[in-house]
Amino acid sequence: MKRLMKGLSPEGEALLNLIPGGVMQCRNDGDFTIIEVSEGFLAMFGFAREELDAQFQGRFLDLIHPSDRQNFLIEVDRQLSKGDRISLSYRVLCKDGGYKWTASSAQLFGDEQEERFFCIFLDLTEVRDAQEKLRLSLEHLEIIMNQSSDIIFEWDFDADAISFSPNWLEKFGYAPHYDGSLQKKDIFRHFHPDDVEPMAELMKEARIGIQNSVVDVRICNSKEQYIWCRIRTATQYSAEHKPLRAVGTISDIDEEKRLMEDLRRRAELDALTGLYNHAEMERRSELYLEGMPETICAMFIIDVDNFKRVNDGQGHLFGDAVLAELAAGMKKLTRKSDVIGRIGGDEFAIFLKDIPSSQMAEEKARKLLDIFRHLFQGEKQSVGVTCSIGLAIYPWDGLDYQSLYHCADLALYQAKSQGKNRYARFDAKSMETVDRIGYSSLGAAIDSDQNTSGSGGNLVNYVFQILYDADDIDAAVEAILEIVGRRFDVSRAYVFENSAGGQYANNTYEWCNEGITAQKEFLQQFPYENVKGYQELFDNNAVFYCRDIHALTPAQTALFESQGICSTLQCALYDGKEFRGFIGFDECTGLRMWNKDEIGMLSLVAQLLTTFLLKKREVDRNQQMMVQLNTILNMQDAYIYAIGTDNYELLYLNQKTFELDPSARVGMTCHQAFFRRSTPCETCPLSGASEVFNPQYGVWTRVRYSTMKWGDRDAYLINCTDITEYKRLQSPAATYGMEEEKQTKR
To answer: Is residue 121 classed as helix, strand or coil in its secondary structure?
Structure first.
């Protein structure tokens, strides 16, 4: 190689070649014509010395990225106006056609006849790439935060102040504080009084270091309306495992919460009378009796006498009106604390709590008889209604619901056998024979029509319980479609769910009756554009009912005909205002007239399925997000792994860590896997070392770690960034030390 500087000894030039990066000598002639370059310069950019002359005529300015040249020239002039040294960062062309970011320091020397620069170059490409990745990551995080409907907050324990993301204002209509933060002592005034204690408990858990906490609370908005929200917190710790802060999210679950409450209420109540259904009647009574009350209680079972005559003579609609009026009369005669239920078509039960004497229970029975006798007096159309009542008293006749119910049932039999229109109190001696043969006055013959709303209410309650208790929602939905399909004797019951963009529909669940051909496999990714206006078929109650599919548009008729459908009833799935699909019931054997009760019942079942299906899809999306996050970790240009805090056991390794050492496995200790040691390392990053050299791989890493939960275990998440090249550039001696230690290991 030619001499880099005239008069420089071979030893001096050898020292220059040891400088990390590259060295160049050029003229201060506007083109910065190259005089000489070091081997490091040529290696950095990939050119041979002759190629610099042949391709660029030695003009260094032509090697600078076109977008950086103007700024380069301006900065050279500006810095030379203040002295004879310059320091710049810009991109330089490489032989492969790419560009490298460089940090260049130059000294001007010589006289007016010829001024020269002596320049040193360091490769900044990896640093700039890392900065760009960080910028994009922060930008991505900001986009996610801005688009998220959840409010993100952070509570600094030392300052005892909480800061919120800007969408607090959008959600609640007021700013939490002028500077975006809120003192903890002020926060409780925004919460429903009943939720202050649960919220205080969550904050206490976070403060003492509980890793994760969740609570559902109501927060007041600017219109003085309470919104149900789900608050999740995660606690962050110092290196000494001291709780530092809590971060978390506030999610709006108001619609979900209120819908669930409404569905639960509907499942508890009889649709016709508004009284509790049999299951809820039993649950509430049993719950009270489990407390072993020390006061007297009474159980009434009431049966409407000869109600079948009313139904047969006046019709079921008239009979339903009579039952509703009777229920209203019973409500007036009891307290809010008492439990009243419709336990059959024309049968009711009342559980009176905390009464002063058994004589008062008998007086209440007489008043019930009187209400039934006189309820419809003075009506234009005379209705003669009486009832029979069986009465059992707690604690003498039984200590639990089933015992009291059984005794009241036997007493009812006695009242009916004595001529009806009367009450009878349970008497063990007189009922001994009846009890022995196992007779029950209830269930043997229900006078009212079994297809009324009462029985449907039991179906809805049953469906709700299946969904509420299900571990496998998919299996539960399949079972419910069959139950409902057989209950209403339809040909086919199914669920369609829309694609993410709403352009396609997918048949996700289907049940078919005997002899009906399944359609599920043919109805995947079905485009709505093939049947334009489909969503408009659903009315304001989210119901689409069509007795004859030939009344639809040709395209819609063709779609149903291809599936053998004659009549259909479909209920839309809505997530807020967004149309997410529909639940349908088809008739393929002929035209079918759906009555109002059937439409109402199937609509209610559809609402139940909608609620749980949307919740399941949210869980599915969360699981998919976890897979995506794991993919992101595997794509990171860093060695990332998790270890148990108590034993250094590896709990997780990302792909880059596996590539570094394919023999590393979950279950090994980190010092065993990465350092081939039987004991923890002296330079363990958990002890404070931020930069660690691994002689096993000849790699320097900068280490960061944080505490986390891995299932139920305390763990550390460790992020190791490869800084080997940086260490080489920073200190040739460090490179020599690495090579020497590698040789020693060998």
So the answer is: strand
| 99 φ/ψ sector (left φ>0, alpha ψ -120 to 50, else beta) | beta
Q: Which band of pLDDT confidence, cut at 50, 70 and 90, is reported for residue 439? A: very low
Q: What is the Cα–Cα distance from 618 to 630, expressed in whole angstroms?
A: 18
The helix or strand, by DSSP H or E, that contains position 583, with its residue range, turns out to be strand 578-587
* One-letter amino acid of 518: A
**Per-residue pLDDT tens for 453-506?**
334 456 777 777 777 776 777 888 888 888 888 888 899 999 998 887 788 889
- Over residues 406-432, the mean pLDDT reads 84
Distance CA 728, CA 327 (A): 88
DSSP string, 330-376: HHHHS-TTSEEEE-SSSEEEEEEEEES-HHHHHHHHHHHHHHHHHTT
| Reduced 3-state DSSP string for 254-278 | HHHHHHHHHHHHHHHECCCCCCECH
Query: Can you say how many angstroms the Cα of residue 88 is from the centroid of all Cα atoms in its chain?
Result: 49
pTM: 0.36
Amino acid 523 reads: L
DSSP 395-450: TTS-SSHHHHHHHHHHHHHHHHHTTSSSEEE--TTTTHHHHHTT--SSSS---S-T
CB 248 within 8 A of CB 264: no
Instruction: Name which of 232, 183, 180 is nearest 206 in CA terms.
Output: 232
8 Å CB contact between 388 and 303 = yes
Residue 375, token pair as written in the block? 């309820």
Q: In whole angstroms, what is the distance from residue 742 CA to residue 746 CA?
A: 6
The Cα 210–Cα 232 span in angstroms is: 12
| Contact predicate 113/16, CB 8 Å | no
Spatial contact of 310 and 383, defined as CB atoms under 8 Å apart:
yes
pLDDT for position 448? 33
* 403 token code pair: 């015992």
Residue 511: the pLDDT is 92
Alpha-helical segments (H) within 494-588: 554-561
User: Mean of the per-residue pLDDT values for the chain?
Assistant: 80
DSSP assignment of 283-325 equals: HHHHHHHTT--SSEEEEEEEEETTHHHHHHHH-HHHHHHHHHH
Beta bridge partners of 642: 652, 717
- Give the integer Cα–Cα distance in Å for 619 and 609: 15
